[in-house]
């Protein structure tokens, strides 16, 4: 049996035999994203004292056959009973919607990693670096990796939005679901970046550095840009623009700086980019969309 709680979205691919899947609806029980204090088997006698309100939980039950994929939405508990010997492949995803959950997970795991080695702080030449390396080993990424992801995700989204506004024209922005999706992504990225700057243990420079021109020439970033345009275009049934067009737009932003050296720089670059878009297109669009009114997104 497998029981896991993931803050990012999860996909499970079954390669052999049969499993029974139970998905517990988000919000019906308190989330413990670390899965350190949760019900092990929902079909056992569950203590109402330890898990108050569990009897009100709502779940869906299904069978997963060979070569089938099950999509587990963000924040949903899931429990698996393998009826036979089987092999499963799991992938965890995160996006603008659940970035805050990923940050919470990193923060909690960082504090644990730090506590485990606190007794060697005085004899360690690079205690913080060791904490970050242990965090990456335990969680799959550290704060520097998270910063690189945020900055690249921002660049891919801002370039896509530039192209979308130019190709759709201002007359079509109000009906562009893709543009609104991109706006939501940008607002979410800024909110998380701003939150990072306020965290004492992330303050300063922990390998936070991004060369914008180097990033634009990176094949991995090219692939990310293509994927963002292709996937959002497919979701919203809108045409995607070419990467060359996006790269041409990026040059417009480089009079700010070709380097982002820390989180504070990153937040300033986000605000600069939005102001640049506002000047290039229409201030009315950005006022209505919320990009020029960041506090609208602070509590979402």
Automatic annotation (TrEMBL):
<dbReference type="GO" id="GO:0005634">
    <property type="term" value="C:nucleus"/>
</dbReference>
<dbReference type="Pfam" id="PF02373">
    <property type="entry name" value="JmjC"/>
</dbReference>
<dbReference type="GO" id="GO:0043565">
    <property type="term" value="F:sequence-specific DNA binding"/>
</dbReference>
<protein>
    <recommendedName>
        <fullName>JmjC domain-containing protein</fullName>
    </recommendedName>
</protein>
<dbReference type="GO" id="GO:0045905">
    <property type="term" value="P:positive regulation of translational termination"/>
</dbReference>
<dbReference type="GO" id="GO:0005737">
    <property type="term" value="C:cytoplasm"/>
</dbReference>
<feature type="domain" description="JmjC">
    <location>
        <begin position="1"/>
        <end position="110"/>
    </location>
</feature>
<dbReference type="InterPro" id="IPR050910">
    <property type="entry name" value="JMJD6_ArgDemeth/LysHydrox"/>
</dbReference>
<dbReference type="InterPro" id="IPR003347">
    <property type="entry name" value="JmjC_dom"/>
</dbReference>
<dbReference type="GO" id="GO:0016706">
    <property type="term" value="F:2-oxoglutarate-dependent dioxygenase activity"/>
</dbReference>
């Amino acid at each position: 049996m497998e029981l896991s709680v993931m803050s990012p979205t999860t996909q499970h691919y079954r390669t052999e035999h049969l499993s029974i899947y139970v998905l517990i609806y988000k919000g019906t029980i308190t989330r413990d994203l670390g899965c350190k204090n949760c019900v092990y088997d929902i079909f056992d006698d569950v203590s109402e004292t330890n898990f108050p309100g569990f009897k009100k939980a709502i779940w869906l039950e299904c069978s997963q056959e060979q070569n089938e994929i099950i999509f587990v939405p963000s924040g949903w508990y899931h429990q698996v009973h393998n009826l036979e010997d089987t092999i499963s492949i799991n992938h965890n995803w995160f996006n603008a919607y659940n970035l805050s959950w990923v940050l919470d997970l990193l923060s909690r795991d960082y504090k644990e990693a730090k506590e485990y080695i606190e007794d060697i702080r005085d004899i360690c030449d690079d205690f913080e670096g060791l904490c970050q390396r242990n965090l990456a080993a335990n969680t799959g990424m550290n704060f520097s990796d998270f910063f690189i992801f945020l900055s690249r995700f921002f660049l891919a989204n801002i370039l896509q939005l530039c192209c979308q506004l130019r190709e759709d024209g201002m007359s079509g922005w109000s009906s562009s679901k893709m543009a609104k999706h991109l706006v939501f992504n940008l607002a979410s990225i800024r909110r998380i970046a701003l939150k990072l700057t306020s965290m004492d243990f992330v303050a300063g420079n922990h390998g936070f550095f991004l060369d914008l021109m180097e990033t634009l020439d990176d094949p991995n970033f090219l692939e990310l840009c293509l994927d963002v345009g292709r996937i959002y275009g497919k979701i919203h049934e809108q045409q995607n623009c070419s990467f060359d067009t996006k790269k041409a737009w990026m040059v417009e932003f480089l009079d700010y700086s070709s380097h982002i050296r820390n989180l504070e720089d990153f937040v300033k670059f986000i605000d600069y980019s939005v102001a640049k878009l506002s000047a290039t297109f229409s201030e009315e669009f950005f006022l209505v969309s919320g990009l020029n009114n960041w506090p609208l997104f602070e509590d979402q």
